[in-house]
Amino acid sequence: MSAEATNPEAHPEARPELRRRGRTRLDLRRLGRAALLGPTSRDRLPDAIGHVAEAHRAHHPDADLSVLRRAYVLAETSHRGQMRKSGEPYITHPLAVTLILAELGAETTTLTASLLHDTVEDTDVTLDQVREEFGDEVCFIVDGVTKVEKIDYGAAAEPETFRKMLVATGNDVRVMSIKLADRLHNMRTLGVMRPEKQARIAKVTRDVLIPLAERLGVQALKTELEDLVFAILHPEEYEHTRALIAAHAGERDPLPAIADSVRTVLREAGIAAQVQVRPRHFVSVHRIARKRGELRGSDFGRVLVLVGENADCYAVLGELHTCFTPVVSEFKDFIAAPKFNLYQSLHTAVATPEGYVAEVIVRTRQMHRVAEAGVVALGNPYATATADAAECDEERVDPTRPGWLSRLLDWQQSAPDPDTFWSVLRAELAQDREITVFRADGGTLGLPAGASCIDAAYAQHGEAAHGCIGARVNGRLASLSSPLSDGDTVQLLLAQDASSGPAAEWLDHARTPAARIAISRWLDAHPDRAMATTSAARAPLSVVGARGGGANAVADLPDAPVRLAGCCTPVPPDAVAGFVVRGGAVTVHRIHCAAVAQMRAVGRTSVAVHWRATADCRVTILAESFGRPHLLADLTEAIAREGVEVVSATVEPPVEQRVRHTYTLQLPDAGGLPALMRAMRDVPGVYDVSRA
Q: Which residues contact 345 (CB under 8 A, 6 or more apart)?
């Protein structure tokens, strides 16, 4: 594949967003000449990192550039003589990666580590040298980005490298920032590789790096990575999209006029705001085209409104919805409810009198910086750490670590082999949305969208969740397979029996890797129990003795035997209906039983039925409970205390730790039925009692 096809940056007309952002691009030839000339004198900054220094000072005017000079000198001398496959001196690569991060606003420590990120891997420089010259933080970041030796890990080198990097990211998110910038520059220059290697690298970028960029909120890197991957893996669709953008460039663009109207509205309302048009990147245009079919002129970009304060965002929204026709379905408030990747903005869409529909994004300037650079925009998250915390060997608490990263770090420890880790990592990162559920104790759990109560159980209790027997969701009893929604409150019920374990069916409802790995390990360690839970399918409901005599029911048909229906087990004073069935017997149903309509539909003869004066009756009760030891004994004891005789009882095999009991009971007085059902519900573990 040509460099042109793999590098959208090569087409200025196809990448209007690059012109809009106005970012400086490295002149690799000039840098190559500067690198070959070697370092300059100690009293001035090398020309090769002039772009980096300029971009860094734009975000950090008071930054000390001397450490960058020392890092460049070490990187240049250690890489001297090494060339990239594209033909440039190798030093141009760490310089390009560092410039990418400097433009995003990364602080000095990140840029220092970025300049050195390949020295330990590709040169004779050691980690001890980096630590001695630049300190522990830079050494930790460089080590986190350094790949594991392929000679030691073989085919497992790539997944183990990512595992090492993710663990390091858990301690310092700047590790992943450098890796993302490193991959972006490699993707920009991928055209010199063989097509099959381009495809392999692009697939890993699509499956792992782009989701990580999304989750860390680094949209500026994510969008360009998406375009580069799109060009390699889908060249025909990429060319079609490029043609659409090129054709649109020659037509009248309605968005500048809409932006002018928005400026006028906000100026008249006295709201200080900066309004600009943000062209969509390639993949975004492709998605819109697939969603809407034929594209309109306003579909190739969005209007961005930047203000000073949060309150101004809502003021802008009010003016837009007053002066234009809002498209209500397009409104989203990510300020009140930020995304899990730090993103905050108001999204809306308005229709103009000319018939155009324009999407509008409203955010503060600080929100804009975070939206573009994500965790990179947060600077050094450890600047306030105490010296004692820095010296201890324990894992540092990262204030920027999101819930998904903590979950990932937890389950990766249990991943039995690199292949499992690699496949589960891709599946985890494919979950592009996260929900927050509240625990009964007031804490919160971050879970991927589609997670069930099983996932919540393992997220909260770890391996103790093997004994989970049920849950209450928003106060109501729910099965463990029940999916959770954002904002739900979940209370998990654990069995007292320490030997309890999960059923094999739990794997069908577990979405998080931590839950799936824990369940699989337990089932592998208890094969007999696993087989038992798999084979214990619920048997058909069996009601024994429900078709007894008519008891105190009397039919207006002399000498006809009377039977109470087992499907609804009527008792006094239920309203009932009788029907003559085969053999001349009369079967008695409650008037609302579904069988009554069926009897009438087939033309069964209806017979009037009334109750005798005697109050005793027979009834069938269903009790549903969570499984636990001695439950059957406790239930029968509760029934006996009410003075009720057990005619028969059926207990079905447990399914998902839930047990169904069917009792046919002889009551001395039908009036005692409500009290009996209350007594059965009061037995610990029983969550529902009903008439059959």
A: 313, 334, 335, 361, 362, 363, 367, 371
Mean pLDDT of 85-97: 90
Q: Write the DSSP string, 430-449.
A: H---EEEEEETTS-EEEEET
What is the rounded distance in angstroms from the CA atom of residue 261 to the CA atom of residue 604? 76
SS3 16: helix
CA dist 269 and 315 (Å) reads: 9
Q: What's the CA gap between 341 and 433, in Å, rounded?
A: 10
Residue type, 420: T
Looking at the predicted structure, is the pLDDT value of residue 163 above 60?
yes
Which residues are within 8 A (CB) of 671 and not within 5 positions of it... i.e. 6 or more apart? Answer: 615
Amino acid at 75: A
Token output for 211: 């989701």
pLDDT in tens, 611-670: 765 556 778 888 888 777 777 778 888 888 888 888 788 888 776 667 888 888 888 777
DSSP 133-157: HH-HHHHHHHHHHSPPPHHHHGGGH
Give the Cα separation of 328 and 326 in Å (integer): 6
692/690 Cα distance (integer angstroms) = 6
CB neighbours of 520 closer than 8 A, spacing ≥ 6?
507
- Mind listing the pLDDT tens digit for each residue in 461-505? 888 888 887 788 887 777 788 889 888 889 888 776 656 788 888
Are the beta carbons of 467 and 529 closer than 8 angstroms?
no
SS3 content of the chain, % helix, strand, coil (to 5): 50, 15, 35
DSSP annotation of 298 reads: G
- The two tokens of residue 385 are 């750490």
446 burial level (CB within 10 Å; 0-12, 13-18, 19+): middle
Element (H, E) at 307: strand 301-307
Q: What is the pLDDT of residue 95?
A: 93
β-pair type (346-351, 332-333): antiparallel
Nearest-Å Rg of the Cα atoms of the chain is: 35
Tokens linked to 532: 């038992």
Q: Which residues of 397-421 are buried (b: 16+ CB within 10 A; e: fewer)?
A: ebebbbbbbebbbbbbebbeebebb
**Residue of higher predicted confidence among 221 and 517:** 221
Determine the residue type at 621.
I
Joined tokens for residue 584:
């001349």
pLDDT value, residue 350: 93
User: What's the pTM?
Assistant: 0.65
Active site (catalytic) residues: 121-122
* Residue 204 zone, left/alpha/beta (φ > 0; ψ -120 to 50; rest): alpha
For residues 360 and 320, the answer to whether their CB atoms sit within 8 Å is: yes
Contact 479, 503 (CB under 8 A): no
The secondary element (H helix, E strand) that includes residue 525 is: helix 513-525
What phi-psi label fits residue 475: left (phi over 0), alpha (psi between -120 and 50 degrees) or beta? left
**Can you give the pLDDT at residue 289?**
86
Confidence at residue 308, expressed as pLDDT on a 0 to 100 scale: 92
Compute the distance between CA of residue 6 and CA of residue 188 in angstroms, rounded to an integer: 7
Q: Are 634 and 682 in contact (CB under 8 A)?
A: no
Residue for token digits 């008792």?
Answer: 571
